[in-house]
């Protein structure tokens, strides 16, 4: 077998494992969730958070990017069962 054939076999093996690895990472994501503390934000008389207009993105466990932690807390306050996965924009992995 030549070098190119060997490299192709390695590439096929890696791409075959990639979807399984992504599913494993998604299923174990709960181990790495950062429990967000929402009580640090003040609520108005209607019980809603008055969030600052600051862009400091966080990724929710629903895979959506929120403009800041307070915006995520507002979504949680509305009854959504989610938390913060990590700081920064959500990143999606596309498998071809």
From TrEMBL:
TM ranges: 12-37
Keywords: Disulfide bond, Membrane, Protease inhibitor, Secreted, Serine protease inhibitor, Transmembrane, Transmembrane helix
Subcellular localization, as worded in the UniProt entry: Secreted
Superkingdom, taxonomy of origin: Eukaryota
Pfam families: Kazal_1
GO CC list: extracellular region
Name used for this protein in its record: Kazal-like domain-containing protein
Organism: Pseudonaja textilis (Eastern brown snake)
Organism lineage string: Eukaryota, Metazoa, Chordata, Craniata, Vertebrata
């Amino acid at each position: 077998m030549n070098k190119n054939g060997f490299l192709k076999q390695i590439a096929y093996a890696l791409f075959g494992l990639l979807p399984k690895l992504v599913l494993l990472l998604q299923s174990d994501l709960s181990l790495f969730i950062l429990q967000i503390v929402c009580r640090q934000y003040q609520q108005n008389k209607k019980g809603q958070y008055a969030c600052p207009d600051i862009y400091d993105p966080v990724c929710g466990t629903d895979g959506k990017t929120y403009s800041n932690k307070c915006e995520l807390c507002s979504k949680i306050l509305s009854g959504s069962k989610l938390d913060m996965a990590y700081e920064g924009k959500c990143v999606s992995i596309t498998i071809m």
